[in-house]
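Check these lines:
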Amino acid sequence: MALFSIRSSFNATPDLLFPGLKTTVWPSMKLAIDYTTQLWQEGDQFVAHAMPLDVASSGATPDEARKALEEAVHLFLESAAEMGTLDQVLEDAGYIRKADSWKSPSWLAVERSEAILSV
């Protein structure tokens, strides 16, 4: 399993991030939200999963899967910002706010485990 650290940022206006604020014009701002990507193969497709956001996408190649995941993460975060739930979504995923960025949880390990069932 390959792990890739990816920094992603998106443009959002403060009224999307802070819905209670009253003003008519907001400058665009960038907010950095990092995440870790897991990548694996399922049949002839490659799956990319963003931890801890729990967003996934796929593609015919590892690079296509990564690009599709980047777009999916961007749309997920943008939608949360538009709905006024971005802070809650990130806090629920274990992120900590640091000025103009959100810091994802520090991974201690990514391990492969096995569950044995009697069926």
Q: What stands out?
A: The first strand starts at residue 2 and ends at 12. The chain has three helices and six strands.
